[in-house]
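Researcher: Structure prediction, please.
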Amino acid sequence: MTVHVDLNADLGESFGRWTLGDDDAMLGLVTSANVACGFHAGDATTLRRTCARAAEAGVVVGAQVGYRDLAGFGRRFLDMDPVELTDDVLYQLGALDGLCRVAGVAVRYLKPHGALYNAVVHHEGQARAVVDAVRAYDSGLPVLGLPGSALLAAAEAAGLRAVPEFFADRGYSASGTLVPRSEPGALLHDPAEVAGRVRRLLADGLVRAVDGTEVAVRAESVCLHGDSPGAVGMAAAVRAGLEAAGIGLRAFA
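Model: Predicted structure follows.
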């Protein structure tokens, strides 16, 4: 049984008068916050507030970088030139790190968002582009991603710390990838079921795929989606279940 684990969630995704999720409540439950950087979501005021509140809560901030796609919430693949993708990631890193520094903290890791996250599971060119940005900005920043992905392989090859994560409330395919949101079984909604599968993952290193296959997954962090319906209740159930099992909560970065 794992003795401690990180809980992360996507935060800072509101924009102007449009509110997405309950960031304040989630910051009381997670140990790491994947904060949007303005390309897929988040305006400057939202992001500054999120960084400040994370600092107050003692939650580690990571830059959640994505495609320049506000209209699509970063969930549409963009076939970008690798140099331009590297530059876009650098831009996002620098912007969020500046807002963090005003709050007295700093960006401590990077995680891709949405379509970029899924692309760099297999797209080696885009994976290297993201890693090139991290290495150029701060080679001490860990990269958070899917186990077995091209992203984590590229990070390791570049001498960066590659951190594998598990998605508590997402369905898995037999190959260990996430079930696309458009397909049945992509999202889980029962807090008790989700809490149970997290405990099983940490105890046995296994998750049941949508086809019933038992898939081996190694993870140092568990992702909880802050924008899902009932996200706060889900996160609270997972945290309570881990604490009841004697598993400590600790940021990986």
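Model: The beta strands are 4-11, 32-36, 60-65, 109-112, 143-145, 162-167, 206-208, 214-216, 221-224, 248-249.
Researcher: Thanks, that helps.
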